[in-house]
Q: What sequence folds into this?
């Protein structure tokens, strides 16, 4: 065993107390979306934990193989939510990815994206603003229903995926910093649109603004805000993550607001749970700021229903356009928000809510997972697509922009006449 | 190590994508759910049809490579841990088709890798019922259930896996197909090899297709919970229910230690002062259910239950069962390592067994919570420990030995449903006899002269 692996093993031993809780019962096999496609033990949680234990005990030489196994996880949290012994699985995997990557190095592509681009908000915005002007030259229309495009010329880089174009003008470019006082609600929120609503699904971002205005909620949207950091953290790049968190924390610590609201379960989970959890080594004053910020984070569906009291009355509407709801992993399993978006949909009499099978099964996007394991991601997404189609819905709604991208891609590739909409968009239509 | 040329031969049979050779992939098949040392296989092979399965077995035998067949790897006695001598793991999850569900003749034919709960669900969709419900059913496979003769909560009234195996075909070590049983209710053609294969733990052949019996589902059910201040009274209640000719579909027991752990975890307001609780469900025709529930309630009160809660509707029933559903999760969370045993005694001996377990816990200074199937005497003393603490784990091993001693002295058995595997084979002779071991070994040698079929399990020597 080389000295290097011994050092890596030592670092992994800090996870021992958490990993030993896994009793290898194997119940994770029932819910893991990756395992259900590949049926390989190294792809399921129990297998990954066993491999990490081996690496920590220096019983395995192929550290790269373990790194690869570790990366084949969506971090969807399904296993954690169903684990009989309550193993803190996502936490173990996030820490392990960071330890292993620190040691073995991050792939050059990941480094370029996470540190060079996403970790650099100004450059990220500039590149996308630039790209939005020229994207039509490289892409062609793929499907009307989802408004997707495809790019055969770029296939070596992005596969044959169908994607929604980057908005001509991002939310922050169009509005700059928004700063309005509390209205009749007496509340003011820090609006965190998240990267996708800011740069791609700007209509959805504008629907949020419309809803805030209607309810008399003051909005502060600093134009300088950056990515919440989840892509970097889940890819195991703590350096890039720390940079984004500290950058945002400085900005967010300044303003006056009651809640931080985002139309994205992943962004909110990250701000609420990960920011305090994975910043224990930051200076005390930064940690204090982060704690205060984290305590105010709330998903937009939850904010509307539980804080503002938006709630449908009487029987659920029938006879309208059929809509089905996909529970995104970070929203339901991470934040426990599942009924609220459904309530918002029921506020719109033009739609009839029908449930699909396995509504809370992961769509297969997994953030950056889809970038590196597109074939696997597509298989998992295919199952979601089949469930959507079998429900007979004409619209699929969800509370997460990343799920929207994935479902748009899956439906578009099958030429399905089904639209993808955020729950907030369906509610905003009624105002 | 397996030679590169032999690996290629396996690849020629099942395709390169179905032979796992890398170190991490092989290490991921070195364990199951038993608390035992892992053994890494030299190769993992996944056949996707019968023909491939037969060829893989023959190839293993020709090359003297021990086979361990693996479904979901949830075995609690080490039955799916491969052999140290060039062991090869054969996965059944590429053989996971339900081939037939016959609603007229009430049987189904499945491949071994079909997941138990998925199968039960498919059967239920057709208005029929497959009763065996082992705790791992969400992931366990039918092949594994048959090989272990898995039980479950419904054992008392509906029996265990072997009671549903009408027939099967399996490969011998030469990759030749052996057939036994049939699709008919009655069949006395030849030896009852299907009976022999149930609980054979992969030591006598490799399953190809399994014919399972189905039944109509019960139309109604009723659940209740009874609280006792004395384990003896709970046991008397169980005896009284059976004596009154009522056979509940489930009759579950939890002792005070288990209750306290569940309450700490769920905060559901369980009676932690109780010495034990019983959870009972009767099912059948609605009229019969009403009658039987009344009889059970009377028996419980007469035996001295301090409280009896009868569920009024499905929601209350779900709540009532919450304590039992959370028994293992609550116990598993209490300490890092969970040693789940399944020593089984005649049901009248439950108080003696529970008392002995509590004495053993004290003697070895261990936390043991006990829950289980009171109706069939199948208890799950669950030892909560930390396997990294060598001294403590040594005490755990001693305690397990003593639990077996007591179970045998009460005319019970080593294992009700978890299997013998590697964990309990040293105890086999104590429960049976030397002649039993020799008889089994002779049979095994005749059937498997190279000793490649899951060696070291059940009859290690």
A:
């Amino acid at each position: 065993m080389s000295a290097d692996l011994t050092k890596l093993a030592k670092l992994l031993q800090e996870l021992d107390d958490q990993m030993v809780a896994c009793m290898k019962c194997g119940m994770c096999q029932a819910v893991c979306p990756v395992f259900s496609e590949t049926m390989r033990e190294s792809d399921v949680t129990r297998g990954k934990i066993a491999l990490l234990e081996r690496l920590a005990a220096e019983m395995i030489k192929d550290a790269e193989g373990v790194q690869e196994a570790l990366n084949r996880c969506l971090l969807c949290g399904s296993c954690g939510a169903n684990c009989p012994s309550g193993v803190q699985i996502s936490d173990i995997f996030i820490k392990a990815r960071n330890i292993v990557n620190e040691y073995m190095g991050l792939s050059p592509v990941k480094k370029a994206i996470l540190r060079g681009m996403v970790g650099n908000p100004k450059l990220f915005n500039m590149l996308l603003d630039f790209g939005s002007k020229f994207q039509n030259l490289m892409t062609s229309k793929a499907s009307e229903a989802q408004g997707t495009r495809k790019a055969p010329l770029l296939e070596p880089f992005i596969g044959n995926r169908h994607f929604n174009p980057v908005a001509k003008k991002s939310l922050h470019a169009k509005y700059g910093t928004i700063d309005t006082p509390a209205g009749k609600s007496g509340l003011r929120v820090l609006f965190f649109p998240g990267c996708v609503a800011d740069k791609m699904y700007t209509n959805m971002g504008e629907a949020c603004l419309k809803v805030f205005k209607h309810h008399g909620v003051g909005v502060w949207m600093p134009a300088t805000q950056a990515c919440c950091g989840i892509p970097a953290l889940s890819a195991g790049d703590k350096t890039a993550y720390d940079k984004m968190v500290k950058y945002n924390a400085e900005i967010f610590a300044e303003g006056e607001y009651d809640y931080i609201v985002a139309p994205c379960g992943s962004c909110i989970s990250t701000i609420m749970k990960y920011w305090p959890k994975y910043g224990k080594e930051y200076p005390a004053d930064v940690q204090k700021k982060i704690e205060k910020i984290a305590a105010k984070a709330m998903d937009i569906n939850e904010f509307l229903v539980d804080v503002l009291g938006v709630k449908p009355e009487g029987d659920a509407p029938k006879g309208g356009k059929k809509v089905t709801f996909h529970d995104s992993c970070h929203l339901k399993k991470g934040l426990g928000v599942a009924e609220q978006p459904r309530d918002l949909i029921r506020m719109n009499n033009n739609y009839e809510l029908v449930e699909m099978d396995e509504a809370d099964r992961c769509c297969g996007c997994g953030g950056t997972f889809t970038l590196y394991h597109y074939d696997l991601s597509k298989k998992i997404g295919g199952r979601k697509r089949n469930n959507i189609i079998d429900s007979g819905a004409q619209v699929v709604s969800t509370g997460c922009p990343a799920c929207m991208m994935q479902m748009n891609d899956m439906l578009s590739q099958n030429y399905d006449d089904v639209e993808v909409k955020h729950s907030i968009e369906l509610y905003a239509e009624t105002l | 190590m397996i030679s590169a040329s032999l690996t290629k031969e396996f690849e020629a049979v099942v395709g390169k994508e179905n032979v796992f050779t890398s170190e991490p992939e092989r290490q991921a098949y070195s364990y199951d759910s038993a608390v035992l040392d892992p053994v890494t296989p030299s190769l993992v092979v996944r056949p996707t049809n019968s023909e491939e399965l037969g060829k893989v077995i023959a190839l293993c035998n020709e090359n003297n490579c021990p086979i361990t067949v693996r479904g979901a790897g949830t075995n609690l006695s080490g039955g799916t841990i491969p052999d140290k001598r060039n062991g090869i793991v054969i996965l059944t999850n590429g053989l996971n088709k339900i081939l037939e569900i016959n609603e007229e003749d009430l049987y189904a034919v499945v491949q071994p890798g079909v997941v138990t709960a998925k199968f039960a669900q498919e059967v239920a969709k057709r208005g029929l019922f497959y009763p065996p419900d082992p705790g791992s059913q969400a992931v366990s496979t039918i092949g594994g259930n048959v090989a272990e003769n898995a039980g479950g909560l419904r054992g008392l009234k509906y029996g265990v896996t072997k009671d549903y195996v009408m027939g099967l075909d399996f490969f011998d070590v030469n990759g030749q197909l052996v057939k036994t049983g049939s699709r008919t209710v009655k069949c006395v053609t030849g030896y009852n090899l299907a009976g022999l294969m149930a609980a054979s733990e992969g030591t006598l052949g490799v399953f190809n297709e399994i014919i399972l019996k189905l039944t109509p589902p019960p139309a109604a059910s009723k659940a209740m919970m009874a609280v006792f201040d004395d384990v003896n009274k709970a046991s008397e209640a169980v005896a009284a229910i059976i004596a009154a000719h009522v056979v509940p579909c489930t009759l579950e027991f939890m002792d005070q230690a288990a209750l306290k752990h569940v309450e700490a975890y769920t905060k559901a307001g369980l009676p932690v002062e109780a010495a034990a609780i019983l959870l009972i469900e009767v099912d059948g025709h609605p009229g019969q259910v009403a009658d039987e529930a009344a009889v059970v309630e009377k028996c419980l009160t007469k035996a001295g239950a301090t409280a009896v809660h009868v569920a009024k509707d499905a929601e209350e029933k779900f709540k009532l069962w919450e304590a039992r559903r959370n028994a293992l999760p609550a116990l598993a969370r209490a300490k890092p390592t969970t040693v789940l045993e399944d020593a089984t005694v005649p049901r009248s001996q439950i108080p003696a067994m529970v008392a002995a377990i509590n004495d053993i816990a004290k003697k070895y200074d261990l936390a043991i919570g006990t829950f289980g199937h009171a109706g069939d005497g199948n208890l799950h003393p669950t030892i909560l420990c930390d396997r990294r603490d060598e001294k403590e784990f040594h005490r755990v091993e001693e305690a397990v030995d003593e639990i077996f001693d007591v179970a045998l002295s009460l005319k019970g058995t080593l294992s009700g449903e978890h299997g013998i595997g590697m964990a309990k084979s040293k105890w086999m002779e104590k429960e049976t006899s030397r002649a039993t071991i020799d008889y089994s070994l002779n049979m095994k040698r005749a059937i498997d002269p190279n000793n490649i079929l899951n060696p070291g399990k059940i009859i290690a020597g």
Observations:
- The domain at 312-428 of chain A is CATH 3.40.50 (Rossmann fold).
- Chain A has a mean pLDDT of 91.
